[in-house]
Design brief:
The strands form 3 sheets. Strands 2-8-7-6-5-3-4 form a 7-stranded mixed beta sheet, sandwiched between helices. It has a 3-stranded antiparallel beta sheet with strand order 9-10-12, with helices on one face. Strands 1-11 form a two-stranded parallel sheet. The protein is an alpha/beta fold. The chain contains 14 helices and 12 strands. Bound molecules: pyridoxal-5'-phosphate (PLP).
Length: 408
């Protein structure tokens, strides 16, 4: 195994980098495409081939409402990417002001955002693009450290938002506790003007085992707290049907949604309603969605088992790394000894195993302790995964030994 680090003897083994489903998972939805010609009119008689209905078809809104735990009237249906909706939210808030009465962030000088870490690199990339300063906040296993979050928001009105992946967070796999969700729902009251909660529920229905973990109802709590216009919930079917050809959803209070739609109507005449209808017909109710997601879990659970068992068998007794034990989602988060993550990723690259760059899970790609590595086991086959995991754990052992021998 050591030789392969020098000479890439194993060839290109596997890619842990992609947070993508494997082809096999796409077969679960295959039937739809060949029947598209049947899907020309929605239940309400809307011809889905035409322009119009910027906010989406009613039956697609119902699917979004199921994923996000809100009412269909709170939902706007977008194109294939929820990330694109998030980008638009930040863009519109920056240029025009998103909440009713809120000034554009660009008029306010400095803008800061809270970024629970480790987190999703593309959230950080959006902030970076708009020159928004990112403030890392530690995750606790039950969501962000809310004492820190509340203290920061109270004393700094330039903090305009927080990124949240509340269920099976990317990459830690944690789900926010009921208390955390309630405190986040109240946050906009303590914050300066124009504050938004970016609630990216990308893994809302991605349980790996039979247990379906319930996330508290952010929208309900926000309504009670009077902050519903400041919460922006997103989800998509990227990890339900097709990663590059699903549909996405944005939910908020009607006033915020209407302001968003006003700007969106300049950006586009409407999303792909043929695809919305195909999805709504394929996943018409909660029971069908749950059955479908159990099929995904049957493909994914053995891959997560493989990762966790290899880590346990090879590293547990050595006590040289820590890792998450996710009950769902797409990732395992691994912490090496401080200072070693970049070296481990480099060793794996030399051996033909591609990992997410070390640091990617922190704002500006800078992990202050250089120890977090995100493992995304969904894309490789089980065989590739097993071999790649052997490479990864050997790289961790090697890097740790080197550090100990040099006293670094
Ligand atoms: C937390 C999170 N949000 C959003 C996305 C992307 O979602 P979409 O395909 O809907 O843009 C991902 C993809 O990996 C993700 O991990």
């Amino acid at each position: 195994m050591l030789l392969c680090f020098q000479h890439n003897l194993l060839g290109d083994l596997a890619c842990f980098f992609h947070r993508s489903p494997r082809l096999f998972q796409f077969h679960l939805y295959r039937i739809q495409i060949s029947h598209l010609s049947r899907f020309l009119r929605s239940q309400d008689g809307i011809d889905v081939r035409n322009y119009g209905h910027l906010d989406g078809l009613p039956e697609a809104k119902r699917l979004g409402a199921t994923l996000l735990g809100v009412e269909p009237t709170d939902v706007l249906v977008g194109g294939n990417s929820s990330l694109s909706l998030m980008y638009c939210c930040i863009l519109f808030a920056h240029a025009f002001g998103l909440r009713p009465g809120a000034a554009p962030w660009s008029h306010e000088g400095k803008v800061r955002f809270l970024c629970p870490v480790p987190g999703y690199d593309r959230h950080f990339a959006i902030c970076d693009t708009f020159g928004i300063e990112m403030i890392p906040v530690p995750l606790t296993g039950a969501g962000p450290d809310m004492d820190k979050v509340e203290a920061l928001v109270r004393r700094d009105p330039t903090i305009k938002g927080i990124w949240c992946v509340p269920k099976y967070s990317n990459p830690t796999g944690e789900t926010y506790s009921d208390e955390t969700v309630a405190r986040i729902a109240a946050l906009p009251r303590a914050a300066g003007s124009g504050f938004v909660v970016m609630w990216d529920n990308a893994y809302a229905v991605h349980d790996l085992g039979p247990e379906r973990i319930q996330l508290a109802d952010l929208m309900g709590l926000a309504r009670k707290a009077g902050t519903a216009d400041a919460v922006l919930l997103t989800a998509s079917t990227s990890k339900v049907t097709y990663a590059g050809a699903g549909i996405s959803f944005l939910a908020s209070a009607p006033e915020t949604l209407a302001r968003f739609a006003k700007h969106l109507g300049v950006h586009t005449i409407g999303a792909n309603k043929v695809n919305q209808l195909a999805h709504a017909r394929f996943l018409p109710d909660t029971a069908t969605l749950e059955t479908h997601m159990r099929r995904h879990a049957a493909i994914l659970a053995p891959k997560f088992r493989c990762v966790l068992e290899t880590l346990e068998q090879r590293l547990q007794a050595l006590n040289i790394a820590e890792w998450s034990q996710p009950k769902g989602g797409y990732f395992v988060s691994l912490d090496t000894q401080p200072g070693l993550a970049r070296q481990v990723v480099e060793l794996c690259t030399q051996a033909g195993v591609k990992l997410t760059p070390a640091g990617a899970t922190f704002p500006l790609g800078q992990d202050p302790e250089n120890r977090n590595i995100r493992i995304a086991p969904t894309f490789p086959s089980l065989d590739e995964l097993q071999q790649s995991m052997e490479v990864l754990v050997t790289a961790i052992e090697l890097a740790t030994l080197r550090a100990r021998s040099t006293g670094a």
